[in-house]
Fold this sequence. Notes:
Blueprint (H helix, E strand, L loop, with lengths): L5 H12 L11 E9 L4 E10 L4 E3 L13 E4 L5 E9 L3 E5 L4 E6 L2 E10 L5 E9 L1 E2 L8 E9 L5 H4 L3 H8 L11 E8 L5 E10 L4 E3 L13 E4 L5 E9 L3 E5 L4 E6 L2 E10 L6 E8 L1 E2 L8 E8 L10 H24 L7 H12 L3 H30 L1 H7 L3 H18 L9 H11 L3 H15 L1 H18 L3 H22 L12 H29 L6 H19 L16 H17 L44 E3 L5 E3 L2 H11 L3 E6 L4 H9 L4 H10 L1 E6 L13 E3 L5 E3 L3 H13 L6 E5 L10 E2 H4 L2 H16 L1
Helix pairs in contact: 4-11, 4-12, 5-6, 5-12, 6-10, 6-12, 8-11, 8-13, 9-10, 11-12, 13-14, 14-15, 18-21
Amino acid sequence: MLRITGYFSILLTLLLSASPFKAQVYEPVSWKYDVKYTGDTDAELIFTATIEAGWHVYALTLQSDEGPIPTSFRFNKSAQYGCTGEVKQGKFKTEYDPNFAMNLNYFDKKAVFTQAIKRKANADFKVEGELTFMVCNDMMCLPPEDLPFAINVKGAVGAAQVAETPLIEALVDMGMSGGGVLTPVSWQFSVLDETDSTAVLVAEAAIDSGWYVYSLTVDPETGAMPISFTFEAGIGYALNGSVEESKPKVKFDQVFGAELAYFEGNAIFMQKVRKTSTTATSVKGFLTFTSCNNFTCLAPEDIDFEFPLKPGAETGASAAPVKARSNWIIFIISFLSGFAALLTPCVFPMIPLTVSFFTKQSKTKAAGVRNAALYGLSIIGIYVALGVGVTAAFGASVLSEMSTDPWFNLFFFALLVVFAISFLGAFEITLPSSWINKADAKADKGGLIGIFFMALVLALVSFSCTGPIVGTLIVEAASKGGWAPAVGMLGFSLAIALPFTLFAAFPGWLNSLPQSGGWLISVKVTLGFLELALAFKFLSNADLVLQLHFLEREVFIAIWIVVFTMLTFYLLGKLKLSQDSDLPYISVTRLMLALLTGTFVVYMLPGMWGAPLKLISAFPPPMHYSESPFGVGFVGGAGEVAAPSSDGQHIGPQNIYAFHDYDKGMAYAKSVGKPVMIDFTGHACVNCRKMEQHVWSDPEIKRKLSDDVVLISLYVDEKVPLPEAEQIEVELTGGRKKKLRNVGHKWAAFQEQRYGVNAQPYYVLLDHNENMLNEPANYQDYGDVELFNDWLRRGLEKFGK
């Protein structure tokens, strides 16, 4: 579908474009104007639109006026020229849009329009006018834009000049006569792939037919001049590597008598830059090149350029990649969980039974493979529909907001505990038998419908084993928000469906499958222990948000040590449950798993005495949320943490003192003459914990955060109610309104209003006038010790100056 939002999209974006709170100004289309001379008095004006990926510009004509705005051109009347015919356009695409109930003609990536003119004046002149266009992507349409243009055109060749001999005309064409200034190369400059911290500068050359420009790699000793770029020393950016170019051609050059790399038609050059400060506004410089044809070269020419940069952070720029990465992680975890579900007593025995059914009922091997493949696709469809249903029922944004809600986390804790107890053998979670009987009756009909209901029967019958795993995945994916539940179910069902299809295609593989037995029960119990351990992560989230200090770091680690110790004993056969069969000896697989879980227990033990436990840093509460923030048995002495310097300070991550109130922290920073680092964080923010454990633990970074800056940690999920006088309604990005009921609401609104971002962690370095010292930092772009340390260093140097 070309446009998924129709009239509503156009209306909405028009309203947003007028809002003083809009978070980003989109400029997805850039225009370039050229002139092609086709005769003594004829010429062709060329309008080229370069369109960013995902955006569309509409053609000159559309099926109806009841929809998007077509592209149009208006030329000012002039005695110096006259238009010949109508504007022509390049090849466009056509796609039916049900929202507008019409076929829409559009361009993507590039659009070319031409207008033939008759030159009436001998002197050079300008063609002026205005073009109107509208640009849309799959989510929105920008308001129609009227773009004035002024194109320099050479005067028509006079009668005396037309009478020139062919030799003189050739010399003019080669730049060897005073017949006019030749400009066979035109340049266009743009900025692509711009993020909070990086950008790609692009210089594109359009080269007239018969002319060429030499590559960056040409050796000047050959006599040919390679193109070169000179960047002015600027504030707020640094070059990342050297200029890169598109692939040149190579030929023997008759002018210089050597084999040289060159460009004809067009050439693209790119330079990556890294933003080092929020003061970066543009990158300036000039390029030097010479253009040649097969007979001569023009004099070297310098072209000044300026690439505009967007200072500071873009709205939501750091959130989308993180969510995409999280969805990949959800998919992989779900895929592995699907394989674990295969090894449960409810699913594993179904593999040979189902495959045998398809191979016996199908007349040919190909039919058996086809039916089994349809069976696998039906399984995938059933589980993905479940994930989509969860997202549709709650809404993608609501799921994301619920992930920090304490009652949401408490509910999930209770749910996972029930699932774990079920896996350990206390009871089985089953669906109503009437559901299974009805689905089984439908499966007997055969054909595509029968195959689908066979898949549904499998899902219903195996629910006692797959239900807890599916429930756990839905819980974890829902806490990520967005479409993670659907992605999770895709990964899970793909792992379930693959064996049925593959074993149907290669029935001989069934002989290699192990026999069903007590080992399937062991898999189920092991999964129960793992679910029980994971459940306490959700209880910890609720405890952190409510600040109850019921499940502090030591208690959480102690619970995990006990759970994994019991799992180790179970794998070694020292702990037996009612559903287990006799175990005369343990297999090598169980022994290796016991060694793994036993090692994990030993690894966690030092965490009771303050060890950081970086391997599991995202799960336990942070170090400062502890009965002994400095470690059990801390009595002072060497390495002792000093007492707080102000009443408003609290022990924060890595035992670094931090303010939780912006005004108090800023006032203290002014009194001690230090810059401020704002840490927008959350109690239930996993990436915040990773940043604190893996990056802030570096000795140099920890020293800078402790000694060189005043840390202000603002928790956006802090549930402490605000005083009634401060519970006001505020307006956020896009005109959204929100009532501030608690401290978390206050800091979340502050972050979005001040910096246009709502993702955490998010770090800002400020001077005493609340000006940013450099670009903001996040987990995505600065989740590395070296990068974050360099970010701190640059901000501190700017403050020192």
